[in-house]
Design goal:
single chain, alpha/beta, 9-stranded mixed beta sheet, 9 strands, 28% helix, globular, binds iron/sulfur cluster
Length: 214
């Protein structure tokens, strides 16, 4: 059984898959407490679903792209079985993970979107660094949520240290909602000359920052 906050179909708001219709399976619970977290409603509650019941709902939505997210989806070990089942059915599977739990046992067919927590999140000490060495250039993406200049400098340091421009399919630089001037961040990115992608959270512009499950 997995504890699930919501299963819904919407538009993918982030990553290089932004704009594509996608079914989201949002698991309940997260061991982290990022200061700017926009998913606190996932920390508690949720309903228990069997994997068969989840698969049925995903099938009903009829979307070839499925994202397993949270909370922290990999904090529930049975999530690994769900991911495998989805891959077996030939869904294109995205895993949005906060970077604290190891990605080692995730089905190799799934695509990882790995957060690296920056200092302003308050959780930078808990990044599981070996996850960065497992990124695959043909499918995995790495995301930095940036809330300050210090965060941006941290991101640049990690990009260099782990050679992420070579290692990842995409490096996503995501402004923390309402905490950083977008033009300022864009300027830093352009000045850096790094091959990164500034990403805005599309769903928040479409439905507003506080709406979820749409
Ligand atoms: S890892 Fe994600 S869900 Fe967990 S506290 Fe941080 S932002 Fe929120």
């Amino acid at each position: 059984m997995l504890r699930i906050t919501e299963i819904f179909r919407s538009i993918q708001g982030e990553s290089t898959h932004a704009g594509r219709p996608c079914t989201f399976v949002r698991l309940t619970g997260c061991p982290m407490r990022c200061t700017w977290c926009d998913s606190e409603y996932t920390f508690t509650g949720g309903d228990h679903f069997t994997i068969d019941a989840i698969m049925q709902k995903v099938r009903d939505f009829g979307c070839p792209l499925v994202e397993v997210t949270g909370g922290e989806p990999l904090a529930q070990r049975e999530a690994l079985d769900l991911i495998k089942r989805l891959c077996d059915k030939d869904y294109e599977v995205l895993i949005e993970t906060g970077g604290y739990v190891s990605t080692k046992d995730v089905d190799a067919r799934a695509k990882i979107i790995l957060d690296v927590k920056c200092p302003a999140s308050g959780e930078a000490e808990r990044n599981h660094w070996p996850n960065l060495t497992r990124l695959r250039r043909d499918k995995d993406e790495v995301k930095f949520v940036v809330a300050s200049r210090e965060d941006w400098e941290f991101a640049m340091k990690i990009i260099a240290e782990y050679d992420l421009q070579r290692r990842a399919k995409a490096i996503l630089i995501s402004p923390a909602w309402g905490l950083i001037d977008l033009q300022e961040l864009a300027k830093w990115i352009v000045e850096s000359g790094l091959n990164v992608r500034m990403q805005l959270q599309l769903h928040k512009y479409i439905w507003g920052p506080d709406v979820h499950g749409v």
